[in-house]
Amino acid sequence: MALNERDCFTESIEMKAMSLRCPQCGHRDDYQIKWLLREKKERMPGGGDQRDRALFEKLRDHLYRVDDTVNCNKCRRRFEIPSHQSMIFLDD
Ligand SMILES: [Zn+2]
């Protein structure tokens, strides 16, 4: 049985303010963006073998961005959140 990464984390929703600039009208503002906080469980879920244990050791707590787009507060047009800001590791 392969290790299911989702089973290794406790997930909860977290809202974070992000300063974003609308590419359409140039307006910069803070937006509440939805993230998934994924905290690694103390123990690996059952059924794993040696290889799964090695994988589990490498997993780290992180925030995973759920929202891909926001609506501009000024012009109301939808724009994309830059994709390089889609994951944040927490234990650095
Ligand atoms: Zn705009």
How are the secondary structure elements laid out?
Elements lengths: L8 E13 L6 E13 L9 H9 L3 E4 L3 E3 L6 E3 L6 E3 L3
Antiparallel strand pairs: 1-2, 2-3, 3-6, 4-5
| Helix and strand run | EEHEEEE
Give the N-terminus to C-terminus distance in angstroms: 31 Å
Strand content: 35-45%
Mean pLDDT: 91
Lateral strand order in the biggest sheet: 1-2-3-6
Work out the number of β strands: 6
- The coarse overall form would be elongated
* Biggest sheet character: 4 strands, antiparallel
Could you say which structural class the secondary elements and strand pairing correspond to? mainly beta
- Overall tally of structural domains: 1
Helix proportion range: under 10%
Based on CA atoms alone, the radius of gyration comes out at: 17 Å
- Which residues sit in consecutive blocks of at least 5 with pLDDT less than 50? none
What is the count of helical runs? 1
Bound compounds, please? zinc ion
